Amino acid sequence: MGIRARIDLAALRGNFSVLRRAAPGSRAFAVVKADAYGHGALQVARALSGVADGFAVARLGEAIELRDGGIQDPILLLEGVSADDDLAAALAAGLDLVVHEPGQIAMFRRLAARGVHSAPIVWLKVDTGMNRLGFRPEAVLEARSQLLACGVALRDLRLMTHFARADEPGVDTTPAQLARFASIVTAWEQLSGSRPVVSIGNSAGTLLWPAGQGDWIRPGIALYGVPPSAERGGGDGLAPVMTLSTEVIAVREVPRGETVGYGGTWQAARDSKIAILAAGYADGLPRHLPSGAPVAFRAGHAPLAGRVSMDMIAVDVTDLPAIAVGERAVLWGEGLPVETVAGWAGTIAYELLCAVAPRVPREYVG
Ligand SMILES: *Cc1c(COP(=O)(O)O)cnc(C)c1O
Quick one: pLDDT at residue 233? Predict the structure, then answer.
């Protein structure tokens, strides 16, 4: 059977319910960018179609893949588009768009001149402190007027922002971002006479900052069962969706003093039993995952021994009883949280999940 990623769609729906309960007054985009964080965008979207209020992706191609797969729910392009033809394609596919910079408004104007037959919802993005995408607060109302006058009929013009540090304990940047956002909402309301629909929180914003939920939440990582913050938790009730597992393809005795693997970076401090597993960096394991990182066998956890190769890893199973060829082991997921492995690798769960390679078969259950 080799390496495979089992994707538990029942756990996915359960996690979505946890987010719903955490934000009962909000609608929810399920964020399925980057192939649903490695879980398979179309399968995840099918499992949540009609359950979530819409989907959010980063790029046009990701949205088209969902439409081609039959997903008719609202889809939001989180980065908007960066070319006129892409805007035309996005509108033809009935997508909603983020507008975060002036050039995108100019695209709307040029497209209006060509004639547009759909009326998208546009989410005007405000940069409240992340300094990545969005109009600065003092430029938002001008961008609003330009969009309203761009010549394309908008079904609605809404406001969104994004937190930079909602997952961190003891920082005051999130309340500061919320305060900046609130003053823009107020100014907008005074100008137009009605409060805009707003979207603020990602997973951490939703679960750790109830004030930051807004009308539409945008959870990603929590859907896949990862608590939004290593330090602050917030993951009660979430269950891992992906379990990446593989099998032992060889078991060998390594005498004390010998080394294992490329570079000889792991040396046996005692006569050791080493299991070779079919999983490597070509499957998405980080090559820099260090010796000592845990791998979960039925009988318990055992430490990685030496460098991750392209297709294989070595694990020191000396302390486990009777590990045999064919036995399966979990690299992350059930019994070994992906965030734990990410900690060993010096990264975050997002990166590990997104990096699971196309050659790893996904098996859907639930
Ligand atoms: C990716 C993304 C999200 C989802 O973030 P999580 O931390 O995975 O919940 C929400 N909003 C925007 C703008 C994003 O780019």
Answer: 78
**How far is 179 from 288, CA to CA, in rounded Å?**
40
User: Which residue's alpha carbon is at the smallest distance from atom 15 of ligand 1?
Assistant: 78
pLDDT band at 273 (very low <50, low <70, confident <90, very high): very high
The whole-angstrom separation of Cα 279 and Cα 268 is 21
Centre a 10 Å sphere on the Cβ of residue 288 and count the other Cβ atoms it contains.
12
Domains recognised in the chain with CATH numbers? 9-224 (3.20.20.10), 242-365 (2.40.37.10)
Beta bridge partners of 296: 301, 330
- Give yes or no: 262 in active site: yes
Catalytic residue among 37, 125, 224, 262: 262
pLDDT tens digits, 150-205: 999 999 999 999 999 999 888 899 999 999 999 999 999 999 999 999 999 999 99
Please indicate whether residue 33 is annotated as part of the active site.
yes
Q: Which residue is catalytic, options 33, 37, 224, 350?
A: 33
- Whether residue 355 contacts residue 35, with contact meaning beta carbons closer than 8 Å, is answered with no
- What is the C-alpha R_g of the chain? 24
Name the nearest CA neighbour of 134 among 106, 174, 162, 112: 162
The whole-number average pLDDT for the span 235-256 is: 97
CA 217 to ligand 1 centroid distance, Å: 10
